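Fold this sequence, please.
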Amino acid sequence: MRKSVLLGTLLLSFGCSANSDALPAWNDTPTKQAIEKWIQETTRDGSPDFIPLNKRYVVFDNDGTLWPEAPLTFQLQFAVDEIKRMAPEHPEWQKDPLIAAVLENDLKAVAASGEKGLLRLVALTHSGMTTEAFAARVRDWLDTHKDKRTGCRYDRMGYQPMRQLLDYLRANGFKTWIISGGGIDFMRVMSDSMYGIPPEQVVGSFSLSDYSLGEKGVELQKTMKGAFNDDGASKPVAIHLFMGQRPVAAFGNSDGDLAMLQYAASNPDAKTFGLLVHHTDAAREYAYDSPPTASGKLVEGLSLAKQKGWVVVDMKQDWKTVFDPSLCSGK
């Protein structure tokens, strides 16, 4: 056996036990202890709660769970910035009240346009191009834009405690998936570099693409046809469609994630785990549950967590750091 293979086998066998602390960005609170206890009990040979490797599928929401979603979700911020970039090429937009609100930074008016208005912004900025061209636009946006409050690149704003949790789970043989209301093509551009989650393990909202065969070969054109919103009750449907099995753990932050947590909790073949991130830190991030600044209302979930035994992360109390200072220094 090669040394690299042997080392990988040993790491998988012993998880993170060789490290003094696999979750150093977490304070030593009951929340952290509950996470560690569940992972240890479900991966230890001989444990009555042992979960076989081929069943260790865990799912994470993205917006508000792995990175911020306030004051706007990052994808909506991308759409707003794209509208501003594209506006000079579309003089016909000048009479559109929604576009005018975007150009004037009137986010209240944008929000007041409701789901219909937001879908229009998505249609203008996420369709009518090849999948490759869209990915290039997202990468260019990531390279040239920063969060106004932190001064940090958006693709460096993954929550450090959650990134450590993803690593900890994978070190113990769990397969990590993103199941989110965010656009599937948008998230897949940065999921691997940010979280170590490859594109094929990212599931989000999507529309169908059109196939074409031309001089450049096969191309897929993004459209708004057959739109699927991967939120609420649609999340278990997407999990079944893309994963093919029920997860043993689910991690979210809003009432839109409850169906996903309930789906995992109903797994009859495993000791399951559920976790909700509660945004309580106005100084280092944002504090909200109801009403949220953008999305991510958490009301029913707080009540259900007590009944179901799900863990609720108090961001202010449970996290030593929110963003990795080596990645997100504001410079």
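The radius of gyration is 21 Å. The first strand starts at residue 57 and ends at 60.
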